[in-house]
Amino acid sequence: MASKIDEIKAKAEANKPGQLSGLQLYSRFAFAGAVCCSVTHGALTPVDVVKTSIQLDPAKYNRGLIGGFKQIIGEKGFGAVWTGVGPTFAGYFLQGAFKFGGYEFFKQQSINAIGYEAAANNRTAVYLASSAAAEFFADIALCPLEATRIRLVSDPTFANGLISGFSKIAKSEGIGAFYSGFGPILFKQVPYTMAKFVVYEKVSEAIYKRVDKSTLSNPAQTAVNLGSGLIAGFAAALVSQPADTMLSKINKTKGAPGEGTTSRLIKIAKELGLRGSYAGIGARLFMVGTLTAGQFAIYGDVKSALGAQDEERKPTPENGTLFQAFEWNVPADGKHWKRLIAALPSLKHIGISNIWIPPACKASSPEGNGYDAYDLYDLGEFDQKGGTRTKWGSFDELKELSAKASEVGIGLYFDAVLNHKAAADRKEKCQAIEVDSNDRTKEVSEPYEIEGWLGFDFPGRGDKYSAQKYHWYHFTGTDYNAANEKSAIYKIQGEGKGWSSSVDKEQGNADYMMFADLDYSHDEVIADVKNWGVWVTKTLGLKGFRLDAVQHFSERFTNEWAESLHKECGSDIFLVGEFWVGEASTLTEWLDKMHHKFALFDAPLLYNFHNAGGTDSFDLRKIFDNTLVQSEPVNAVTVVANHDTQPGQTVETPVADFFKPLAYALILLRPDGYPCPFYGDLYGLLPGPDTPFDEAAPPACSGKLPDLVKARQLYAYGACEDYFDNDSPDAVTCVGWVRRGAWDRGEGGCAVVLSDAGPGTRRMFVGDGTEGQVWTDVLGWARDGDGDAEVTIGADGFGDFTCGEMSVSVWVRKDAGGRDQFPVKFDTDIYKMA
């Protein structure tokens, strides 16, 4: 659940209004860089004076860093070590602004140009290119002031300070003199900065792989910046030392008449040699290591103080889509896991991120769907209840499905039936009271002895995985008395026994639903089912659970079970409960009791879809009224159909064929909720004993459901602007919305128009700077004669987007990335796959 909530929060954060960007953001980066560079370089002016003196006259200043300090102070006084502090501070204020601000700017441009994923995979190259580009422009600003500083250090009598020295060079030697060292300064500073930023990024990455940055205090993050900066400084000093020495030499004196910069550099390089080029390296290692550590520490703190730190763009997660990977009438041939294995690549291609598999535990028979659960620990491994495999396949095939799903990047959600057990191995006698089937709080008999199917020994499995056996005292109720062959609802009697008080009030008390009802006040039941949750999660590498009929068993235990699972397997295990009721308020009350660790299926929204497709008077503007996704968007799993609502099932809730594409657009292409397309809509439905049809029903949405899921994966990102309420004559029957796209996903977003009556049109704004863009419908349902319709965006950023009669259109830029993948190629004949 945590990962899904984090995904939704990240999307909201990436697109929230008022986010710093452009000049507001990069001016803060630049100012932070200016402060960190000017302060650190200015403070280390004495070290730089000694270092420069050693480079310029190594024969004289040959006593190392400390000895050099003593020599200079002894010869020239204490003030001599602060020579050039003015140009140093000013020069590095400018250079720091360009360097750090430019680095952040060019790094972001690289991400924008090639996409976040490509940039992340090639981040070293991004760091190198961004730092090199930033340093080039920074050196244009630095070079005149660095030339002035070096001239003042090498000849203290040259001028009295920055302004007089700068003016004297400009007047006597011309502007070109300031850039005589531009080549060496590039040669020095570009490798220096590239090494500095790359090593800093790599060291901090290594640290944050071991320590969660979000858990660190501000002082701890500053310490990380200091340590990473120190190592980066050492690397940068070693890389740039030869150029630094040459820069000091070339700026010491002006060149001879007619002598060019290149010839001077060659001459100096020959004179120095490799060893000479590393003169003063000790002083420079100390200086550069210290100042680089200080720079990154100050930079991080100033960024944070200016509000830029938290506003750096984070990558937008790919939209998650859950897929219910079964329908009620899948053949009981044991090949379902094999078919799903074969289908995984195509499901991943269209954008499915997780699949909800059916109850994989041993049922009462090989034909059982698993809601008649017998043994939670038998996943098709043991010869019990008529065979080894389940309806869906064998344990080995299920493990193969888990492995293949992980390989392609799809998570598995397990359908857990925890309310009851079925098909007991033997009868047991106990005391019980009959209760009213319509009100389980009303007792209709005195206590008497019954003989119920309440003994579970699991003879095929024995004690493997769990030694727990079940007896009458592990249950609260049953529905058959073998002693008198009477079917009724029996409330089992015993010390401390009774219906759970923390269940829904359906039928007076909803604890009893069917078969042998588990007693979650019994310590052995609690321990065994908690253990099973952890075991099955680790065995199959599960990413989530769908809990069947959560209103029918203890809310207290459900909370405990979730806490145990998250503690042992991680808080990112997703949990969704099935609580089929039409009132959103009832669902939100249950979520409150679960402390929002769960999601729930949005039954009220499905009822709205049912009503919208079945009446001419439905107001589409109210399609989300009184729904869970409206009140609890993070905790709503949205559906158009499922195995319980399909034809012939217990809560059959048909959605009109024409309305299904509209309904899927409403759950897939909007920002709220976690959409869950249904197997029967993607692959079609097979006939069963209770279906109103005798032949297979084709896939829904005229086969366009894969296209709608793919459109979600590629384009449904960013802020959503609704066109649900206007004065047009068709306002009740035609609605639209625009997704703006995120900074790193969405390719400009999408514009959606749907109508449950005649053809519809909505004039919608798609963004500034979009004039002249041509948009087309990825579904291909918006037509212009025999060809695809096109919408050209006007100078005001608006377009007139259309849809056909009782139809939907999903418009994107004609040149949007991924547009050539439509119509989506998808094999819906899953039964030929195994």
From TrEMBL:
Source species: Diplodia seriata
A GO CC term assigned to this protein in UniProt: mitochondrial inner membrane
InterPro entries: GH, GH13_cat_dom, Glyco_hydro_b, MCP_dom_sf, MCP_transmembrane, SLC25A3/Pic2/Mir1-like
Protein name: Putative glucanalpha-maltohexaosidase
Protein origin, superkingdom: Eukaryota
Bilayer disposition of the protein: Multi-pass membrane protein
NCBIfam families: PRK09441.1-1, PRK09441.1-2
UniProt domain Glycosyl hydrolase family 13 catalytic: residue ranges: 320-712
Pfam families, sorted: Alpha-amylase, Mito_carr
Keywords, in A-Z order: Membrane, Mitochondrion, Mitochondrion inner membrane, Repeat, Transmembrane, Transmembrane helix, Transport
One GO BP annotation of this record: mitochondrial phosphate ion transmembrane transport
Xref: Gene3D superfamilies: 2.40.30.140, Glycosidases, Golgi alpha-mannosidase II, Mitochondrial carrier domain
Family statement drawn from the similarity comment of this UniProt entry: Belongs to the mitochondrial carrier (TC 2.A.29) family.
First and last residues of every Solcar repeat: 24-109, 122-206, 220-305
Alphabetized GO MF terms: phosphate transmembrane transporter activity
Localisation: Mitochondrion inner membrane
